[in-house]
Amino acid sequence: MISLLASLLLVYLAIVRYFRYQRLYAVQARIRASAKEPSPSEAQSALQVALLCDMPFFTHLGAEVALLKTYGIPSISALLLKTGEFSTERKFTKRVTDTALLLSTFISCPLEHSPTTTESTPFLGPRSNIALARVNWLHRHYDISNEDMLYTLALFILEPMRLVARFDWRPFSPEEAKCSFLMWKDVGRRMNIEDIPETLGELEEWSREYESTHMVASASSHQLANMALEHLSTRVPNIPGARSLVKTVFLCMLDDQLRDAMMLCAPPKYAHILIKTVLVLRAFIVRNFKLPRFKPRRGYVVVENPPHSIDCDGHMRLHTVVRRHHPWYYPIPKGWRLVFDRLFGLTKGDLYPGAAFKCEGYRLEELGPTRFEQCMSRKFQSTSFLNSAISRRSQRSDEGSRRTVWSTNRKTLGPLIVSFHCLLELLNLLMDRLLFFITAISSVCVPREMFLTVSAPYHLVFEPFGWGVISNDISV
Questions:
Q1: Which of 87, 272, 362, 376 is exposed most, by the fewest CB atoms within 10 A?
Q2: Where does the ER-bound oxygenase mpaB/mpaB'/Rubber oxygenase catalytic domain lie (predicted)?
Q3: pLDDT, tens digit, for every residue of 285-339?
């Protein structure tokens, strides 16, 4: 019996090993087979494996650390406070959401749109170009130095790779690191950033020198850091000790120079040791015992996500696909989600999706400060990708365009379709259902105002292990 179990374990470990690196090997083979350097669009496509499939949690966390690290430069933090977009929690969360939507759009959607795209290809459109145009237009209203822009660009390249190398189950491969540099270099070129170094090594050296000169302690950096940490804590349940724990974990992700510039207290040494031990153990489990995602992780932007609403002016709008603590651009729940919210009294909270959080959706050319919402929108009222997406959506059912967890995975329950892949999907579905009911039960056992702060409360616990693949559809 023991030998049988040992044999099954060895077979399982071999299967995990094969599938765990399969996507990476395919990307490496495709890049090495080409005699020329990857184009920006090819680099972007190759990078999706790391960003959405293999290491989505720490690459996303690395982008958040990159944004926070910009607050350590006094010239950047002072300008951000001067904009007035950090004066209240609601303004702060709107800016965070808008920034995430714009960044996710030109990372996920293709940087080069070909008019010869075939009908069978998933609809992509020029969303990345519109997002970049919006970012450039917003930046023109502020006096931002080229060095600050270049430093921010460097952080979006370097920080995810650094964090992944420290804590995830594998680092970026040399091919992925090069693709990340090429993609972001093209983004920087489109943003008119000058003097971008020619290689990743030169960029890293320039960034280190810039930090040593400009990252110094300032009151503006301290103020922004406190606001960012407070925003981070609102994304976890209001359980005693939980929020302080999350803050401690995040502070351990920051280097000493950044904490000094933000005038933040360093976490105790035992916290560093404990967190590193947990993350190293997590990396070992994921690398050796967990099968990889069979579908990309859903983030702020889904490439195939078509417009979902038409406002009173006839403009088509997109909804966010993940509900956050402040549910900006998230549609008012319907169906069983609405029944669940009413059952537990969640519809009465001031953080419920509605007009205050623009539940009608967003348009890329309107993202940013409220005072700038209408300044660009007239130029894009007949945007081709929106019109085309609406026509495509009329040709497919809601099950194809905005699937629920059940409709996505119901095929795994059919007796005629039994395969290894289906069994994995079924396991994923059962895990998701179990976590959902745990959430529902926990809402009865804690005060209502505590439960209202929960946005997919198990997300931070299970997403690092890759179990949150389809859990973003279950946000309460």
A1: 87
A2: 141-265
A3: 999 999 998 877 766 555 556 566 666 666 788 888 777 778 888 888 888 778 8
